[in-house]
Write a structure and sequence with these properties.
Elements: E1 68-73, H1 87-102, E2 109-112, E3 115-118, H2 119-133, H3 139-149, E4 150-157, E5 164-177, E6 186-189, E7 196-197, E8 208-211, E9 217-218, H4 223-227, E10 237-241, H5 244-253, E11 255-259, E12 265-273, H6 281-287, H7 296-304, H8 308-315, E13 322-327, E14 346-348, E15 359-370, E16 373-387, E17 397-404, H9 406-413, E18 416-426
Parallel strand pairs: 5-11, 5-17, 14-16
Antiparallel strand pairs: 1-4, 2-3, 4-18, 5-10, 5-18, 6-10, 7-8, 8-9, 11-12, 12-13, 14-17, 15-16, 15-18
Helix pairs in contact: 1-2
């Protein structure tokens, strides 16, 4: 499970520097190389922006979300079932889905719009898809087969466009130290012993919490409280980082590589959260006019170039905090279904609207690294719902997992585009 971009979370439709053709001017990202605002923007926070003291996070709510819907559609609406990646990845996510459904009892059920499907139906669906994709066929024939054998559902906004907002996430890498020193003052924390995973039956509206001295179930400490020392002395420090914005980046991605000064590394994976709602710091600063739109990668660079006190203050505007566990070096990032994510094909969704373990087709535009810039290209790709994220709300939002490395970071951080998401259930 992850807290997605995530990243996504506050990007504008096209960052400054993008042309109508999708070409990206690399100079636009240079805005993040220093803490100096670009020309035309104030050197100090304008009125309405966070000043030198922290205002309550609920002063900066994210935009209200539109009503969303998942509904069955006529199969004639399906786009051509082409795919821009190799077929091996399709087989991989289908096997992951089948393993997931085989682990659940027959009584397990999911809902798509008004319709309910049980685990046996999902197993038959995935098995049929495996048979189809194990026998390569032209895109036209594949499209005909899908139309004839499967019910098709579309997840989208309710504005009649059928579009979905698609963003990207990846396995982050940050520089850390095993010990605290003058430079490294911010810990990547392990899960506290008193952390409680909540549920609807517990009568609270948050996903994780703790019992306070009065015996009441409350949210765990906020990011600001943790920065102020709420967890000090608990022995929960996995490693130490120089920048709180780098830890927030790791938390938004939900997993990452912790790079040590000697080049060695650790891997960290999601292990719980503090129960506070996610707030997009990037969106806050964009909404109040302190920053223009930029990629999430550039935004993190901007934060980390600020004076230390202001960097901490701004990251504290996002009260949500993620705890981690150390993972084996050769362990890939895991999704909410407790199975490895497949780069380019696993997506994060809101399980309140779209079930985990489903197979579908995604159509959108993607950023492609080209030298020092990016080019946006149309793509169609088969995907599977393997993950969740605190910033992914409603069926009109999804996060596409990009994988690891520099290209994944650049492209995933720049991904925000409308698209179409179709899901398949065997007739």
């Amino acid at each position: 499970m992850r807290l997605p971009l995530a990243a996504l979370l506050g990007l504008c439709t096209l960052a400054p520097g993008y042309t109508a053709q999708g070409l990206y001017w690399p100079e636009a990202s240079a805005l993040a190389e220093s803490a100096v605002p670009p020309p035309g923007l104030p050197a100090v926070a304008p009125e309405g922006c966070p000043g030198n003291s922290l205002r309550p996070s609920d002063t900066y709510p994210d935009s209200p979300q539109a009503v969303r819907e998942v509904s069955e559609i006529g199969s004639e609406a399906l786009p051509l079932a082409a795919d821009d990646l190799d077929r091996a990845g399709i087989i991989e996510v289908l096997k992951t889905d089948l393993d997931y459904w085989n682990s659940l009892p027959d009584s397990a059920k999911v809902q798509l719009g008004p319709d309910t499907f049980d685990a046996p139906r999902l197993r038959r669906t995935i098995t049929a898809l495996l048979e189809i994709f194990n026998a390569p066929m032209p895109a036209e024939e594949l499209l005909k087969t899908l139309k004839n054998r499967f019910r098709v559902y579309r997840a989208s906004a309710d504005d009649g466009t059928g579009k979905t907002v698609i963003t990207g996430y990846y396995e982050a890498e940050i520089k850390v130290s095993k010990t605290r020193d003058e430079k490294h003052n911010y810990a990547v924390h392990l899960k506290p012993a008193d952390l409680v995973k909540t549920g609807p039956e517990m009568g609270v509206d948050f996903d994780y919490g703790r019992y306070n001295a009065a015996g009441n179930l409350v949210r765990h400490y906020s990011r600001q409280e943790i920065h102020a020392g709420a967890l000090d002395g608990s022995g929960l420090e996995l490693v130490w980082a120089e920048h709180p914005s780098h830890i927030m980046l790791l938390q938004i991605q939900g997993s990452g590589i912790l790079r040590l000064p000697d080049g060695d590394y650790l891997r960290a994976g999601f292990d719980g959260a503090n129960g506070w709602p996610f707030r997009s710091v990037q969106k806050i600063l964009m909404d109040c006019g302190e920053l223009p739109g930029m990629s999430f990668k550039s935004f993190i660079s901007y934060l980390s170039a600020l004076p230390a006190a202001r960097e901490e203050l701004l990251t504290d505007l996002n009260p949500r905090y993620i705890f981690f566990q150390a993972r084996p070096k050769d362990s890939p990032p895991y999704g909410a279904i407790s199975r490895p994510l497949t780069p380019g094909r696993s997506i994060a969704i809101d399980p309140g609207h779209i079930p985990l373990g489903l197979f579908g087709l995604l159509k959108s535009k993607k950023p492609v690294a080209q030298g020092d810039g990016l080019l946006f290209r149309d793509f169609t790709r088969f995907i599977a719902t393997h993950d969740t994220g605190s910033a992914i709300r409603g069926p009109g939002r999804l996060d596409l997992y990009w994988g690891s490395g520099g290209i994944a970071e650049t492209e995933a951080s720049s991904m925000k585009a409308p698209g179409e998401l179709y899901l398949f259930i065997l007739k």
